[in-house]
Amino acid sequence: MRFSRLFGRTLREAPGEADSISHQLLLRSGMIDQVSAGVYSYLPLGWKVLRRIEQVIREEMNRAGGQELMLPVLQPIELWHQSGRYVSFGASLFTLTDRKDHRLALGPTHEEVVTELVHRHVQSYRDLPLLLYQIQNKFRDEPRPRGGLLRVREFIMKDLYSFDTDEAALEKSYEKMAQAYRNVYARLGLPVWMVEADSGAIGGKASHEFMAITESGEDEVIYCSHCDYAANSEKAQSAKATATSGTGVELPLAEIATPGCQTIEEVAEFVGVPASRTLKAVFYSAAKEFVFAVVRGDLEVNETKLRNVLKGAELRMATEDEIVGAGLAAGFASPVGLSGVRVIADDSVTSGSNFIVGANKVGFHLMNANYPRDFDADVVADIALARPGHGCPRCGDELRSARGIEVGHIFKLGTLISEKMEAYFLDERGESRPAVMGCYGIGLGRLLAAIVERSHDSKGIIWPLSAAPYQVCLCPLHLDDPDVASAAEELYQEMVESKLEVLFDDRNESAGVKFNDADLLGIPLRVVISPRTLEKRSAEAKWRSEKQGRLLAVEELTKRVEALLENQLASQDCP
Q1: What does the DSSP 8-state code read for residue 273?
Q2: 146 bridge partner residues
Q3: Could you give the 3-state DSSP secondary structure of residue 542?
Q4: Which of 28, 125, 283, 423 has CB atoms 3.0–4.6 Å from 418's, for a disulfide?
């Protein structure tokens, strides 16, 4: 490709709305263009990168036994009602009505459609296992698109669905796909962590995310450096030390005046106890029901965990009017003596005694509240936010924190959807059983952006060879020199005939402009021809990630470049 004919142009400065490194560099390099909030066009350079990523993913899915198909974007809304996920996806589900007043959904994912397909075509255990996948557009009405390709409303996803006969077979499919994902990231030069994750609207009993660790990541990973525990902060657990008064005996409940003390810190200081000896009250509205959440004073409520306890109900903080309407006084509330209010308590209330709690009247608290002697809860579960410094739930060592970008998510769905969609098969005994499912997603645009977030410098992008739009940037200097022009044209034709992917910078620009653009685009290998190099019958070859280049003889230069590229690609490939 000749640079002078390339559609799109580079920018010296990033547009003001670009709010992440990848967003800035992809716009500046002319790889993407914004159409509207969360909607982007891929220009030729960006599309070439995306197709190369797609090919790596396709090869690994096929290697793992996947069969590629294509499912419709338009989905009958009845399928979403049948699966029960119409409510859980909520406002993120794009819907439309056709000319016959029939409602349809724009697919945010394809569990319903593919399970209906299996319902129609799978009859016996001999038809299983199945690994079915596609690579196509998805649509989700994100409330706050951000970060360029990191959070969008229309995106390209590889989604694979496994169908097995039982849980043991699902485990094999799940591990096979986990390894395929590791291979994808290794081939793309992207280090990742596989961490425990919340299943969210997709559902299922367990899931894992693959996180590219970077300071610009929007997700937080809680991990232990002593053992292999790691989880998204939405899912992470921690060991909760017992908080007691030191006596080991449950003392009598007693009311004390706490004038002007409303926060946990104020109450703890006034009474002279650590925050872990208090209980915190947090009020929510969940599907129009008032919910009283209780957690130990040194902890915070994890709203994702609370939402899961409430079966995915829409959750928001309760208003002051709603708190007053429930007969509670903010800052002085507790579950002691309450009735008619749904109470969800963190399990930390069971690992302590003689807590300080609100007295449910302004200006007063209660000392020595104990569960279940003095109060009850409708549900006791882990609803606390795990934080750095807490104990690891596996080994007890101190937890730490890192930022990351989710670049893949895999789920053990079990029979959650197959039962509702009637995807049954006959087992060896002729009995009808639901297929056991898993689903596995990679957002290609987000993966592309994550590579940029992890691999760049002050000059621009540094693509791994496996994802780069072109392998070589051929940069002749002083094209007004006939010897340079002739040598560059001859070399370009040789490289094209040898099937190398070359961007030939045939523009009549200065060395500074050409080098800056080559660095910005991140093409792995830059080959420079100039009057100075031709005097030595050579060209300068320089890797984008290195500071110094090397001189290669012009004779058989294409073969030497091929060898450099092959060695580099082999070093990036997975085992």
Answers
A1: -
A2: 151
A3: strand
A4: 423
Helix, strand, coil % (nearest 5) of the chain? 30, 30, 40
Pairing of strands 39-42, 32-36: antiparallel
pLDDT at residue 248, rounded to an integer? 74
CA distances to 253, 337, 369, 550 from 373, rounded to whole Å, are 10, 11, 8, 78
**489 pLDDT exceeds 80?**
yes
Selection from 463, 468, 477, 552 nearest residue 514 by Cα: 477
pLDDT greater than 50 at residue 459: yes
Average pLDDT of the segment spanning 432-440? 98
What pLDDT shows up at residue 246? 65
Structural fold of domain 470-572: Rossmann fold (3.40.50)
d(CA 435, CA 166): 7
Amino acid at 7: F
536: alpha, beta or left, given left = phi > 0 and alpha = psi -120 to 50? alpha
Q: State the residue for tokens 């589900």.
A: 93
Digit-coded pLDDT (tens) for 497-528? 999 999 999 999 999 999 999 999 999 999 99
In DSSP notation, 403-450 reads: EEEEEEEEEEEETTTTTTTT-EEE-TTS-EEEPEEEEEEEEHHHHHHH
For the chain, what are the domain ranges? 18-71+108-212+406-453, 254-381, 470-572
For 253-280, what is each residue's pLDDT tens digit? Answer: 999 999 989 899 999 999 999 999 999 9
pLDDT tens-digit readout, 120-148: 999 999 999 999 999 999 999 999 898 99
First and final C-alpha spacing in the chain: 32
Specify whether the CB–CB gap between 188 and 446 falls below 8 A: no
H/E segment holding residue 380:
strand 379-381
Beta bridge partners of 408: 210
> Would the CATH topology of 18-71+108-212+406-453 be identical to that of 254-381?
no
Nearest to 334 by CA among 349, 316, 312: 349
Per-residue pLDDT tens over the stretch 280-305: 999 999 988 999 999 999 999 999 99
CATH of domain 18-71+108-212+406-453: 3.30.930.10
Architecture field, domain 254-381: Alpha-Beta Complex (3.90)
Rounded Cα–Cα distance for residues 421 and 117 (Å): 10
Q: What's the average model confidence in pLDDT over 78-98?
A: 92
pLDDT digits (tens, 9 = 90+) for 351-388: 889 999 999 999 999 999 999 999 999 999 999 999 99
Residue 441, strand partner residues? 159, 409
